[in-house]
Amino acid sequence: MSAWRGLLREFPDLLPSVPDASVVTLLEGNTPLIPAPALAGRIAPGLEVYLKFEGMNPTGSFKDRGMTVAVSRAHASGAKVVLCASTGNTSASAAAYAARAGLRCAVVIPDGQIALGKLAQAMVHGARVLAVRGNFDRALELVRELGEEGAAVVVNSINPDRIEGQKTIAFEIVRQLGGRVPDVHALPVGNAGNITATWKGYLERSARDGGGTPRMMGFQAEGAAPIVRGARVLEPKTLATAIKIGNPASWAGALDARDRSRGLIDMVSDDEIVAAYRALADLEGVFVEPASAAGVAGLLKLGPTGALEGARTAVCTLTGHGLKDPERAVQVSPKVETVGADVAELRRALLG
Ligand code: AN7
I need a surface site. Which of 55, 120, 147, 239 has the fewest CB within 10 A? Predict the structure, then answer.
């Protein structure tokens, strides 16, 4: 098998063309599709569940799929600066790809509301990090305004290059399933770029190779569920900071994916998110950030209602790595025990 060359070189027919000298890649994509039999048993008898672990991308989230396209195209166009608003992962990815491209990067984050690992990434890659006194939705409004003035290339998912890159996940999944199309695809929904892109990928794949498309099932956090409630949420609240979003940029795309796939968009509570987060870690050995567990939380919620009946195969996108938010992991896990440096004491602690 030849070495993976990154999305722009692996999927040239699907993606906007970029001159080779402008391709900016960290060899993103090609993430594992991990069977999750223990979780499946808790969701619905007979269902096969697979975890598309996007935390294995170079910066630890699915954002790298879109960022390679957006930053490469920005580079090709002669841009000097890329700009984004972010709940954290977009900024981490933009900072890394911009560094590699030799572009300047500015990120606008909601003050005090992004997970430590993501902040560290933006900082270490040399981005200008600006924390606004306001939430993500406000940060995105500000960034859009600057973008319209032409000050920088906006690399949020309102940039169509991001959606193009992110759609590749659908092609990978069907390939990894040996050509089978899953019946259900579950994922978290924040700005709704990812559900829009994943659905676009499945549609394009089916138009090319046949075999149909899955039902798209998106899950928002209960305190940040504008699409479920049908109205903007002015003060979104959830511990899953990645999806703490009250006015999704790709709202219409999410509705389209839901309706055309005969799927649904539902919400899960923070308790359900944490339970799914812990189940992924405990039962499957997969460590994700809290927002990434929302799709699994949704399937755990729907399984007993019969809403998944008839489905044989479900895929969940696990959008980001657990190391993004180490503080949450420590907070929800059993405490560290301290013992003396003494073998008798250690034996007593371990073996009772
Ligand atoms: C781990 O980084 O919006 O529905 O600014 O980081 O496409 O927004 C992140 C979103 C899910 C939601 N899981 O995806 C940002 C940002 C994780 C995320 C989502 C995000 P979209």
Answer: 120
189-238 per-position pLDDT tens digit: 999 999 999 999 999 999 999 999 999 999 999 999 999 999 999 999 99
CA 242 / ligand 1 centre spacing (Å):
5
Distance 175 CA to ligand 1 centre (A): 24
* 2 has pLDDT over 90: no
Q: Which of 31, 62, 295 is nearest to 172 (CA)?
A: 31
CA 47 to chain centre: 23
* Range 278-286 average pLDDT: 98
Report pLDDT for 1.
66
Helices (H), the chain: 7-10, 37-43, 63-76, 89-101, 116-124, 136-148, 160-166, 168-176, 193-209, 226-229, 251-260, 270-284, 294-302, 326-332, 343-351
pTM for the model stands at: 0.98
| Ligand 1, atom 5, residue with closest C-alpha | 86
Residue whose tokens read 């391709």: 23
Pocket of ligand 1 (CB under 6 A): 61, 86-90, 157, 188-194, 242-243, 289, 291-292, 319-320
Which CATH number, 3.40.50.1100, 3.40.630.30, 3.30.559.10, 1.10.287.130, labels domain 63-159?
3.40.50.1100
Question: pLDDT tens digit string along 208-220?
Answer: 999 999 999 999 9
User: Residue 352 has what pLDDT?
Assistant: 83
Name the 3-class secondary structure at 105: strand
Give the pLDDT confidence score for residue 68 in this predicted structure. 98
Encoded tokens for 196: 């829009």
Residue type (1 letter), 41? G
Of the candidates 65, 81, 83, 85, which has an alpha carbon nearest to the alpha carbon of residue 25? 65
